[in-house]
Amino acid sequence: MKILLLLLISFNLSATEIKFTSADYDQALENKSTIIFDMESTKAGFITSGFKGVAKSFSVDFKRVGDTFKDVKITIPVSAMDTDIDARNEKMYEECFDFKNNQNIIVKFKSAYLLGFNGIQKGSILIRGKWFDIDLKIDSKMVGGVTLINGSSSLSIKDLEIPDPSIWIASVRDLIELTFKIEIK
């Protein structure tokens, strides 16, 4: 009986890693599965403009038991992050994320969740070699045999101990609005 139960559990447990890749910034913005971070900067003290960054590649790891997702982990290579301006990207890689010593940003869900969940999921994010607690607003559902997971989080540059990316003429707002869409077929 125990062997039969173990076999049933092992067939029902599916560990998966899915990789998403875009050729460039524009494609990453338009993909069905995407990670976007919105930020703002103020130039000369009074002209505020927003900018978007994207992850041109990322992977999602999880274990699925029926409609329950466990051990969800999103890995974003720092080198795959793109703001569509080379000088800003270079500063982001080298100064903000210390790419030479910290090549990935990792987001983990702290607990399992059931497909159809719509609410706050506790998580943690690894930035510059240090873990920080975050809240992720999650909306997941099944549509036409495809699992759709949408999420967002409001993050703080200061709280994540990221060096201030501001330059003398432009100061960057502390708030980072992170959004993601993941489609699993």
Automatic annotation (TrEMBL):
<dbReference type="Pfam" id="PF04264">
    <property type="entry name" value="YceI"/>
</dbReference>
<dbReference type="InterPro" id="IPR036761">
    <property type="entry name" value="TTHA0802/YceI-like_sf"/>
</dbReference>
<feature type="domain" description="Lipid/polyisoprenoid-binding YceI-like">
    <location>
        <begin position="31"/>
        <end position="183"/>
    </location>
</feature>
<feature type="signal peptide">
    <location>
        <begin position="1"/>
        <end position="15"/>
    </location>
</feature>
<keyword id="KW-0732">Signal</keyword>
<protein>
    <recommendedName>
        <fullName>Lipid/polyisoprenoid-binding YceI-like domain-containing protein</fullName>
    </recommendedName>
</protein>
<dbReference type="InterPro" id="IPR007372">
    <property type="entry name" value="Lipid/polyisoprenoid-bd_YceI"/>
</dbReference>
